[in-house]
Amino acid sequence: MRYQKFHPAKALLPFVECYFIWEGEAADGMQVQSPPNSYSSIVFNYADLYKASQHKNEPVVVPRAFVSGQFTSNYTLLLHGKIGIAGIVLRPSALYNFFGVRMSQLVNARVSLSFLPGLPEEILWTAVKNQPSDEGRIKVLEELMLSYATAAKSNLTIIDEAIDYIDACKGCVSVEAVAAQLKISRRYLEKKFLEKVGVSPKFYSRIKRFGNLSNKIAHHEKIDWQEIVEEYGFHDQSHLVKEFMEFNRMNPTRYHLVHQELTRFVKQ
Description:
This protein is of the alpha+beta class. It has 2 domains: 2-153, Jelly Rolls (Sandwich); 158-267, Arc Repressor Mutant, subunit A, CATH 1.10.10. The chain has 10 helices and 9 strands. The protein has helices at 94-99, 121-130, 134-154, 158-168, 175-182, 186-197, 201-218, 225-231, 237-248, 252-262, and strands at residues 2-6, 16-34, 40-45, 51-54, 60-61, 65-68, 75-90, 110-112, 266-267. Strands 1, 2, 3, 4, 5, 6, 7, 8 and 9 form a 9-stranded mixed β-sheet that branches. It is globular, with a radius of gyration of 18 Å. The chain starts with a strand and ends with a strand. The mean pLDDT is 91.
């Protein structure tokens, strides 16, 4: 099993967090649980089809080429057979800046790539599938993003600055503080943020805090839970557990155990 990340070109840093390739075999079946992480994505599956479920819903087959927005709680991927997935991890407002899409339609959803105006889904999927190497697949993804970069830059606004500020604070910041920092009204911030990201700035901050928190827990062998409580602004450990159960459907200790195993497959 191999999951490898690749850095984007400098011109794409305001929009692309990273690219990734995930390959392996799940002959006996495998379930992978993922918490919300504040990013959106464009994903191409060039191997066996797989399913995904969320909120205890019945698993559904994932499109072979799809776009997704914010996830508000954890989801589970159910894989069987050969795994071959290439994807673009996008900053929260990138899909809006690139394609002008209504982000609320992509919350908790994996929608066929044809949802994005002007993208030739079949041609792109075939190009990714037929590449013989990681480098070739990443090149296809990067060229796609670069072709929209100039237009996307013209769509950057103060809301992108708000996202950057929330990210810099690791999500540990109030909506009032963000609005004050940028000298805009809370109402304007909430309206435009929902348009560009798909969720409110308050909820995005919670997702961002949880994403940073869960990533730290997954990558450290020993955890001082009281230190976590203080660092991420929780009232107490009960508050921390409540947040974990809402976003991830498991307590922090269980999450730490499960994801310690998964992180060994990741190459930066």
